[in-house]
Amino acid sequence: MSLWEYANPKKFTETVTPLIPWVLGLAAICLVASLIWGVFFTPEDYRQGATVKIIYLHVPSALMAINAWFMMLVASLIWLVRRHHVSALAAKAAAPVGMVMVLIAIATGAIWGKPMWGTYWAWDPRLTSFLILFLFYLGYMALWAAVDDADTAADLTSVLCIVGSVFAVLSRYAVLFWNQGLHQGASLSLDAEEHVADVFYYPLLVSIAGFVLLFLGLVLLRTRSEIALRRAAALDRRAEARAAATTGEPA
Amino acid sequence: MTGLLGDYAGEVISAYIVSLALIGGLVWLSALQARRARKQLKRAESRHG
C-alpha cells in the first residue's frame, strides 16, 4: 500500500471520516487534562509567579503556528510537483487553524508580557516575525478567496507559502539569531538541561499533544469539507454543461 | 480561583478565556463548514446524480 493512495479524494474521505471524532475527542481530553493539571496542580514560578501557567497555552500554540505553516509548505510542494488536489486542499484547510494558533500565541504572549516586561508589545525579533507570519496567513487565505480558478489559486498560494516559509523559520529561530530582544530563549529543547523544570514540563507535553491532535483533527475535518465542496461544485458545473449541450447554448 | 493564582489571577484567567474562545470559535466554524459542505454535496448528488 502506498501513501499516495490517499491522494484519491474518495479514499481520503473514507479513511479520515471515522478517524475525525477520535482525534478531536483525544485532543479535548489532552487539553482539558493538561490545563487542569497546569492551573491547579503545578506551583508558581519563583520569579514569574502564577503567570507561568500561561505557558500551557502560549508555547503549544506558538509551536503549532510555525509547524502548521511547514505542513502547508509540504502540502504545497506536493501540489506543485505531483498535482494532487487533496494536498492543495489540505494546505488551504490548515491555514485558518494555523492563523488561530498565531493569534493565541500573540494574545497570550501579550497578556504574559505586560506584568513581566511592562508592555504588551515590543518590536522584538520573535514578536515581529510572528506578526509577519500572521500577515502571511491572512494573505494566504485572501489569495485563495480572491482567485476563481481553483488550480490557479492553488499554484499562487503554493508560491506564497514557499516565500512565507522564510518567516516561519525566522519565527522559530529568531531568539537564536538575535539576542537583543525581550523574548526569552526556547522553553523546549531536546537538550534536557535547557528546557523548563520537570514540574512544568510534563503538563506542557500533554498540552502540546492536545494542540497537535486538535490541529490534526481540524485539518482532516476541513480538508474533507473542502473536498465535498469541490465535488459539489464540479457536479453543478457538469450538469450546467449537459443542460447547455441539450439546449444548444454555450455553457 | 483568584486566591490560587495570586497577584496575577487577572492575567492568567484572561489568557485562558481568550485562548479557549478562539479555539471554540475555530471548532464551531469548522463544524459549520462541514455541515454546509455535506448538505451542498448531498443536494448536488441528488440533483445531478
Automatic annotation (TrEMBL), chain A:
Assigned GO CC terms: plasma membrane
Transmembrane segment boundaries: 20-41, 61-81, 93-112, 127-147, 159-179, 199-221
The Cytochrome c assembly protein domain, residue ranges: 24-183
One GO process term, biological-process aspect: cytochrome complex assembly
Subcellular location: Cell inner membrane; Membrane
Presence of keyword 4Fe-4S: no
Chief location bin: membrane
Gene Ontology molecular function: any one: heme transmembrane transporter activity
Membrane topology: Multi-pass membrane protein
Pfam families the UniProt entry points to: Cytochrom_C_asm
Keywords: Cell inner membrane, Cell membrane, Cytochrome c-type biogenesis, Membrane, Transmembrane, Transmembrane helix, Transport
Presence of the UniProt keyword Nuclease in the record: no
Family: Belongs to the CcmC/CycZ/HelC family.
Described function: Required for the export of heme to the periplasm for the biogenesis of c-type cytochromes.
Name of the protein this chain belongs to: Heme exporter protein C
Organism: Pseudoroseicyclus tamaricis
Originating gene: ccsA
TrEMBL record, chain B:
InterPro entries attached to this UniProt entry: Haem_export_protD_CcmD
Main location: membrane
Transmembrane segments: 12-32
GO cellular component, as recorded: plasma membrane
Keyword vocabulary terms for this entry: Cell inner membrane, Cell membrane, Cytochrome c-type biogenesis, Membrane, Transmembrane, Transmembrane helix, Transport
GO BP term (any one): cytochrome complex assembly
Subcellular localization, as worded in the UniProt entry: Cell inner membrane
Pfam families in the cross-refs: CcmD (PF04995)
Membrane topology: Single-pass membrane protein
Family: Belongs to the CcmD/CycX/HelD family.
Function, in words: Required for the export of heme to the periplasm for the biogenesis of c-type cytochromes.
Name of the protein in its database record: Heme exporter protein D
Gene name of this polypeptide: ccmD
